[in-house]
Amino acid sequence: MKLEQVVLRPYALPLKQPWRAAHATLGERRGVLIGLFSQGLAGWGDCAPLPSFSGAQDRADTFAALERAAQSLRGAALDEGLAGLAAIDNAQARWAVETALRDLSARRDGLPLHRALGAAAASQVAVNAAAGPLDESCASRVAAARQNGFDIVKIKVGLADADEEARRLRALASETAIRFRLDANRAWSEAEARRFLDAVADLPIDGVEEPLAQPTLENLRRLQERCPFALAIDESLFELGPEKIFAARATRRLVLKPARIGGLAATLRLARQAAAAGMEVVITSVVDSAIGVAAAAQLAAALDPARAHGLATGPWLARDVAPPLPLRNGALVLPDGPGLGLVPSGEFAEF
Ligand SMILES: O=C(O)CCC(=O)c1ccccc1C(=O)O
Ligand SMILES: [Mg+2]
């Protein structure tokens, strides 16, 4: 299958309200879609680097790497594209290109992408709601999540004093019956983390991502041992090292962002290694476009559609490149169609 046309389509999508986390605020989302065309079919991928979050590569470097990859794909065969993925030296660009290639190849084979990745057919993926930071309007977002059928709501912590946030979380827990997934994005010293985690130990907490500003396998293990719920490694994955993490099992959970890891196959490999080591794996999106979220959702469906993944970021965008996958009763509904199951629409579909 020869790639007859390769297009790059930049986007800038405003958020309904800023996405705030410890160390980062995001007001709009910029990325580039890559589209591959062959025999009347198209495959799409999303490249949306997050320079403000640790571990992300510089945006200009990323788009330059995507541009180079697009150039080398023009006129190449689909299989040559897949064989050349390892040569793309930028994780987010590689993720976009691999998504587009596998979307196209799954469409050729008439299979939804998760089926093309070797999984049984799934119609939905369980997800946590994304409720933003623990601020004044958090309670209304949590109540809305409960109303919309979510069992787990994710909240960013580490943006205010740890004792104050523990009090706010307790107040929220008394208002709405829901489980909390917290993400400190490396905000706390070990002492602050201990103070917060001890103060909320009796609340319905599903897990806490990245509690420590300076995580090591030793301090994470100490913290995990005093927690009744899962702690998770997310952005510290490569700093701590996947192999060391699997051997140590210092935290119960690992968050994998395929956009940051650099592809579907690489993420599947890490996820299976983590599962074999006895860790829980959660796949998350990066407040990217509906194309990126759909790709991560297909991957999550291939891995474990029943575990709540962090893929409900679509509602934060005021505009999107395609109608996002619908959220129903705490799950992302997967399209029936082949490949990703969605294509860019409106201005993003013209070329
Ligand atoms: O996990 C979720 O529900 C949403 C994804 C998310 O929180 C996130 C989005 C962009 C960048 C970093 C993160 C994060 O998990 O730290
Ligand atoms: Mg996280």
Automatic annotation (TrEMBL):
<dbReference type="GO" id="GO:0016854">
    <property type="term" value="F:racemase and epimerase activity"/>
</dbReference>
<dbReference type="Pfam" id="PF13378">
    <property type="entry name" value="MR_MLE_C"/>
</dbReference>
<comment type="pathway">
    <text>Quinol/quinone metabolism; menaquinone biosynthesis.</text>
</comment>
<feature type="binding site">
    <location>
        <position position="183"/>
    </location>
    <ligand>
        <name>Mg(2+)</name>
    </ligand>
</feature>
<keyword id="KW-0479">Metal-binding</keyword>
<dbReference type="InterPro" id="IPR013342">
    <property type="entry name" value="Mandelate_racemase_C"/>
</dbReference>
<comment type="function">
    <text>Converts 2-succinyl-6-hydroxy-2,4-cyclohexadiene-1-carboxylate (SHCHC) to 2-succinylbenzoate (OSB).</text>
</comment>
<feature type="active site" description="Proton donor">
    <location>
        <position position="156"/>
    </location>
</feature>
<keyword id="KW-0474">Menaquinone biosynthesis</keyword>
<dbReference type="InterPro" id="IPR010196">
    <property type="entry name" value="OSB_synthase_MenC1"/>
</dbReference>
<dbReference type="InterPro" id="IPR036849">
    <property type="entry name" value="Enolase-like_C_sf"/>
</dbReference>
<protein>
    <recommendedName>
        <fullName>o-succinylbenzoate synthase</fullName>
        <ecNumber>4.2.1.113</ecNumber>
    </recommendedName>
</protein>
<dbReference type="InterPro" id="IPR013341">
    <property type="entry name" value="Mandelate_racemase_N_dom"/>
</dbReference>
<dbReference type="GO" id="GO:0000287">
    <property type="term" value="F:magnesium ion binding"/>
</dbReference>
<dbReference type="InterPro" id="IPR018110">
    <property type="entry name" value="Mandel_Rmase/mucon_lact_enz_CS"/>
</dbReference>
<feature type="binding site">
    <location>
        <position position="234"/>
    </location>
    <ligand>
        <name>Mg(2+)</name>
    </ligand>
</feature>
<dbReference type="Pfam" id="PF02746">
    <property type="entry name" value="MR_MLE_N"/>
</dbReference>
<comment type="pathway">
    <text>Quinol/quinone metabolism; 1,4-dihydroxy-2-naphthoate biosynthesis; 1,4-dihydroxy-2-naphthoate from chorismate: step 4/7.</text>
</comment>
<keyword id="KW-0460">Magnesium</keyword>
<dbReference type="InterPro" id="IPR029017">
    <property type="entry name" value="Enolase-like_N"/>
</dbReference>
<keyword id="KW-0413">Isomerase</keyword>
<keyword id="KW-0456">Lyase</keyword>
<feature type="binding site">
    <location>
        <position position="209"/>
    </location>
    <ligand>
        <name>Mg(2+)</name>
    </ligand>
</feature>
<dbReference type="InterPro" id="IPR029065">
    <property type="entry name" value="Enolase_C-like"/>
</dbReference>
<comment type="similarity">
    <text>Belongs to the mandelate racemase/muconate lactonizing enzyme family. MenC type 1 subfamily.</text>
</comment>
<feature type="domain" description="Mandelate racemase/muconate lactonizing enzyme C-terminal">
    <location>
        <begin position="135"/>
        <end position="230"/>
    </location>
</feature>
<dbReference type="GO" id="GO:0009234">
    <property type="term" value="P:menaquinone biosynthetic process"/>
</dbReference>
<feature type="active site" description="Proton acceptor">
    <location>
        <position position="257"/>
    </location>
</feature>
<dbReference type="GO" id="GO:0009063">
    <property type="term" value="P:amino acid catabolic process"/>
</dbReference>
<dbReference type="GO" id="GO:0043748">
    <property type="term" value="F:O-succinylbenzoate synthase activity"/>
</dbReference>
<dbReference type="GO" id="GO:0006518">
    <property type="term" value="P:peptide metabolic process"/>
</dbReference>
